[in-house]
Amino acid sequence: MSAAWAMVRHRFASFAGTFVAVFLGVAVVAGSATLYLSSRPQAPARYDQAPVLVTPPDPGTGDDRDRRAWTAEEAAGLAARLGAVPGVAAAVPDPWFYVQRVEAGRPAGDPQAALVDGHAWSSAVLGGYRLTSGRAPAAPGEVALGGTAAGPATPGAAAPGKTSPDKTTQSMTTTDDQTAGGTTPGKTAPGKTTPSRTTPSRTTADDRVSSGATSGKAAPGGATAGGTATAGKTGAGTTIEVLTSAGPETWTVTGTVDGPGFYLADEEARKRASGVHVIGMTVTGDVPRVAGDARTVIGAEGVVRSGAERDALEPVSVTRIRWLGAQLLIALVMLGTFATVFVVASTCALSAAQRRRELGLLRAVGATPGQVRRLMYAETTLIAVFAGLIGAPAGAAAAPLLAEPMVRFGLEPAGFTVTRQPVALAGAVLLGLVVALFGVTAAARRASRIPPLDALREAAVDPRPMTPVRWVAGVLGAAAGGALLAGMSSFPLESQVTVGLGAAMLLLTAAALLSPVLIGPLVRAVAGPWRGTATGMLVREGTLTGVRRVASTAAPVLATVGLTMLLAGMVATIEVAAGFDETAKYPEANVLVPDGTPGLSTAAVTAQGAEPALTTRLLLTHGDVTTGGSATGGGDGLVLDRLTAAQLQAEAGDTVTVRFVDGAVTALPVSRIGDEVGLPRELVRQHDPDALTSIVVLEDPAVPVIGARALPVHDFVMEEVEEEGRLVDLFLLALIGLTAGYTAIAVGNTLLMATAARRTEFRALRLAGAGTGQVLRVVSAEALLAVATGAVLGGLVAVVSLAGVRAAVENEIGRDIALVVPWGTAAVVTGVCVVLAVLSTAVPVLRRAG
Amino acid sequence: MTNHETPAVELRAAARTFGSGERSVTALDRVDARFEPGTFTAVMGPSGSGKSTLLHCAAGLDRVTSGEVIIDGVPLGGLSERALTRLRRSRVGFVFQSFNLVPALTAAQNVALPLRLAGRRPQRGEVATMLAEVGLDGREGHRPPELSGGQQQRVAIARALVSRPAVLFADEPTGALDAASGAGVLRLLRAAVDRHRQTIVMVTHDPVAAATADRVVFLADGRVVGELPGMVGAERIALHTARLEAVTR
Ligand SMILES: Nc1ncnc2c1ncn2[C@@H]1O[C@H](COP(=O)(O)OP(=O)(O)OP(=O)(O)O)[C@@H](O)[C@H]1O
Ligand SMILES: [Mg+2]
Fold first, then answer.
1. Which of A49, A312, A316 is nearest to A185 (CA)?
2. d(C-alpha A113, C-alpha A100), whole Å
3. Residue A710 needs a FRET pair 20 to 30 A away by CA distance; which of A236, A320, A786, A811 works?
4. What single string gives the DSSP state of each residue in A308-359?
5. Record: contact A365-B94, CB cut-off 8 A
6. Which residues have a Cβ under 8 Å from the Cβ of B241 and sit 6 or more positions away?
């Protein structure tokens, strides 16, 4: 180990490649993992004062979207029994429903969050919210208004200086400057402990509208706006305009509350909500004991959650946002790891080749092959640990900087904060070490076979650029990558990008391994015309005897050009396909779609002379099989689709038990088997009063209504595609930025290493009469050759992979689409590599000369 | 002369050919040679006559194509790469013409290297004594680039001798040095033989250097073609060499 330390200290420059690769890799992984682990599910803030929560039992269909509810009566009964448990101060059902404030004729705030903004007044106690003025609501049409805007006591709390940048976005949805930043309840409730995520936005409890065309996808632009971005001086006695699932309403404010939400009289809330999903308990006694007693009381009728189990109540919409963010972070970790292995392997191979003489000397002096191998591992361990110990904190320090953009782009929920994640850091350091050791394996094995006599050979000539192992690994990699591409259409659509990336990584590795085969012919072809000149001869012979060196320097170029072209081309191809795909489904007509709302209210639909196409979720039981599914209101009886019918083994005429979202259970005969699950509209409305319509196809010109807009189908589809494309573009940018940045650094790095190690060679050249200019020409030409090799191979891999992606997409949509090869991107990336390559070879040469 | 001691190194019909087919070169052609303990042998011969090859094969740095090499009673033939390395580490010292030292290590570290590779911690003063013996006391902390060519060569000799090998091989150790430094190195080698009964086999082109040896072995075209005692002096050795070169040409 001491020898390793001496080597590392002495020849740090030649280990710089490994160092930089591991440093960057560990930083990326540590940063991504810190973000990933910081993003934990968390119970909504409105249960802050309810350490024990009870939810209905899991329906057991294995689908997250299937949630059982209690009917209001069931919930009241259970709450009464739970309230009797010793140590329980109050057991309160929390029925919720859609309410959205209308300001200046437009729905305000985050539509997804608005889905759960309506509550029963009694549930305010679960968040510890109290009236700041006025009185509690008692009659229909009365509301206790939450949000800080309401209270006259609040304006002073939000001093302009304290307004953080993301709060400014919120203030845009308010009409009164004084209320800016007011949606974070903790700010205005001094003395009340603020958990890390108190912002009430994104507290959607169910994803019901996602089954329709207005998918429940994150509405990224609105991510920072609170659901109750209430405005104006709305003290007790004033009226407010709101939108509910029924349509526009005007309510009288009876009081103001120091937490977010709209609080209605209990009976009124009960009627509007589609069942009860949570009973919260405020507790005076010992929480675990109370939870235990509650479990005994409630038995199989509910699930009692305390402590960390409460966090399972995270709203689905928030989970979805975090899932999206996690996809990006996982991709970053994957690419970071790949780039590290790739770059470490090529720099280690290069540095081992450069140290042939030295390693031969060690062998001559008495080092066994095992000792040489261990020396290489020890050196790499030192470098990797050192790089990791610097890289991990660097990554962790960069992570919080990414939190804000991630929230802004809808990849993390509002209020997301980065916490310290020692495990992520330790893991990243360890990963860096393992990956570096993995990268050095091949080089170490090769080095240990250096014969001791190599210490006596002046110039290291690559005896065999291609070893059998290299051939086998290269061909296997190419085959595996090709197979993945060929079988791509059998993977689900969401994971096809990942599969494509995986295939590309395999192909890139294969290309790097096989590149020495290509270098010979390429050099002969390119250097051919200049064979007569000294430069031509030197370049030709220099590269032909140093094929491995050229391969090592070409590898990062290969990765940079290949990955960038592939990512850009893949997205372009998928976007082209997606655009066609969706347009084809829609007729030449106008549609009415939600505008700043999570769905269309009944009033908005009926105003058009149409019937609301209500969507709800059902739990269907036949025999001992239970399955969940979306159902549309509109038929004449219970209609099952073929899949559900098959699952339930039910036929027309059989009686099926239907559990509605409000918890009510009815037995209904199956009237027929159709294309989708359907129910009479009145039944849906009755049992899912909070249901919204996702989209209406219009026959006549649209009647303007609040919270809806009409547009041609084509435009709507384009918007949807663009929305999706925006996210994909974001992913793309992050991934390209990472890989291209990373590998581009490696390009400079390996060339710098390669050139610096050839000092003696250049000295000999100068002694033979070559001027600095000539030496420069030789090394630049060599560098350009390496870049050309890398670019050609990278381009080849990208085009092959893109062809694979295209085939998969064509298979998916059953139509031919054009192959999009991003030549522009390729040219730019190659150009950057050329500049980097020339700079990093010229600098060492000029420094020697100067 | 009867000697019942085991020879430090013995070559029996040792042959080494490079390449195969038409382009094959026979660098060593069934050479028999014995190097007795405590003797200093010089190997001379025209360029390309196989001197280096002989040394490499005898030192176990290279393997013979046929025949046998026995170091300190151990035949090298059946040894694995690992066992061979171990044997070399403990029984053989080697000094090259140049590039002898690991540039990353100090003089002391370079000298201690064979011991450390053998998994042994150098005893207190062991390395310093060795360096003092080659006249480099106080230079322990210097790295190769900070030492002159002659000093580097002396560090290399100290390193080759530190493990008290059965035999020390030196391939033109003075070849890259000026006359004064070369003489210093030769005095060192002679002293090792006289004081510690060190066995030394040295390849050289220099008749003066060869004259410091006990015995001079002449090689031509991969074969031993003659032998002179070192004490005959540089002139007679030079004469013999010149005659040999004329014959081979
Ligand atoms: N690795 C090798 N591959 C092929 N041929 C070799 C190799 N090493 C030596 N030879 C050939 O073997 C012969 C003997 O070489 P060797 O190096 O032993 O000569 P030498 O006597 O040491 O010459 P010099 O005095 O110039 O150092 C030469 O013809 C040389 O070309
Ligand atoms: Mg020689």
1. A49
2. 9
3. A320
4. GGGGGG--HHHHHHHHHHHHHHHHHHHHHHHHHHHHHHHHHHHHHHHTHHHH
5. yes
6. B44, B45, B207, B218
DSSP strand pairing (B199-203 vs B167-171): parallel
For chain B, state the CA radius of gyration.
18
> What DSSP element (H or E) covers A112?
helix A111-114
Contact assessment for residue A299 and residue A184, using Cβ atoms and an 8 Å cutoff: no
Helices vs strands, H then E, count in chain A: 23, 22
Q: What is the DSSP string of A597-648?
A: SSSB-HHHHHTTT----BEEEEEEEETTEEEEEEEEE-SSSEEEEHHHHHHH
Ligand 1 atom with the smallest distance to the CA of B55 is: 18
- Tell me which of A830 and A332 has the higher pLDDT: A830
Asked if the model's pLDDT at residue A850 lies above 80, the reply is no
Order of strands across the sheet that contains A708-712? A696-698, A590-594, A708-712
pLDDT for position B68: 93
Tell whether pTM > 0.80: no
Ligand 1 and B49: CB distance under 6 A: yes
Q: Which of A304, A266, A240 is CA-nearest to residue A103?
A: A240
The predicted structure's pLDDT at residue B54: 93
Could you tell me the sign of the dihedral formed by the alpha carbons of B129, B130, B133, B137, in that order?
A: negative
Residue B99, chain A, CB below 8 Å: the answer is yes
pLDDT digits (tens, 9 = 90+) for A791-811: 988 998 888 888 887 887 777
Domains and CATH numbers, chain A: 1-41+314-457 (no CATH), 53-313 (no CATH), 515-589+709-850 (no CATH), 590-708 (2.40.70)
Give the domain ranges of chain B.
38-49+79-248
- Interchain CB distance below 8 Å, A3 and B82: no
Residue type at position A418? V
Instruction: Indicate the SS3 state at residue A419.
Output: coil
Residue A775 is encoded by which pair of tokens? 């030496």
Is residue B89 less than 8 Å (CB to CB) from chain A?
yes
Of 3.40.50.300, 3.20.70.20, 3.30.413.10, 3.40.1160.10, the CATH number of B38-49+79-248 is 3.40.50.300
- Which of B20, B31, B49, B202 has most ligand 1 atoms within 8 Å of CB, for mutation? B49
Amino acid at A394: A
What CA–CA distance (Å, rounded) separates A787 from A550?
9
Q: State the pLDDT confidence band at A681, using cuts at 50, 70 and 90.
A: confident
For chain B positions 46-65, those within 8 Å of chain A (CB to CB) are 56, 61-62
Q: Which residues pair with A107 in a beta bridge?
A: A102
